[in-house]
Amino acid sequence: MSKLLGKPRSLLAALFSCLALISAPLALAFSSLSLTGCASSAASREISVSGSTTMLPIAEAAAEKIKEEQGINALVSGLGSSAGIEAVMSGTADIATSSRDLTSEEAAAGILQKTIIAHDGIAVIVNPENPVTNISLASLRAIYAGTITNWRELGGPDETILVVNRDEASGTREAFKEIVMQGTPFDRTAAVLPGTGQVRDVVSRTKNAIGYISLGFVASSYTKEKVKALAIDGVYPQETAIQNKTYSISRDLFFFTRANLSADACAFLDFVLSDKMNATIEEAGYLPLSAAEKSAQGAASASHDAMKPTQEVG
To answer: pTM of the predicted model, to two decimals?
Structure first.
């Protein structure tokens, strides 16, 4: 009888052994799947970059390159410098791109840290058919204040000047307001447009219009319509004039961030400041920082080390 019982017991033992052999690979497979899910999650890391339409070419190019090289997915939007700054201050974006510096109120909040990304000139543009090639800064101010209203007053044709301005969320408007208007109010009857592209388009199609855009958008590969940049007090918005500050309507382009910047956002900041982006910044029509400027400002990895969240050990 014991011999008969021994066979079922041995068969059961063999069965349990087989189950054990089968379950081990399955457990390993499920474990590997779980680890793969974590890796996939890490590979699809996201940061939010929001703000200036002027800086879209820089931010979008950097987002494409860093996605390929480091697997960081930067979601870039251009709703205006003020909107980007507000988004970072409220914690809904990681990096604000801005074509203006902080206002006194924004700076007083003590929330944001500034990084200069590139240099730019604001070009005053007219239709190519307009014979006017040069105006003074004072005349430009008078045009946008509404006190000079006809091109005849500037040596041009007897036509009313169509003044095209930017909306209040625009960093380019804020820079223009500070540098050109110098406390003089804008003419309220001017046309107000929300983006750089719209300003360029209207001026390119309207013979008597005047507007202002970033130098990087004067020559555009996206449209056949052309615009002409005016000299201001005899100086055209060109690279050398912007570098040596002889072109009066020049500015810096910024990234603004909060403290405790994530490692991925830090990597994006470092990438934009790296030499890898110099050619892209130049192709967009802006001037990258010199090696001396980068050194003086400090690389993002150094200046933002204190922002990175501390990792717990153990």
So the answer is: 0.72
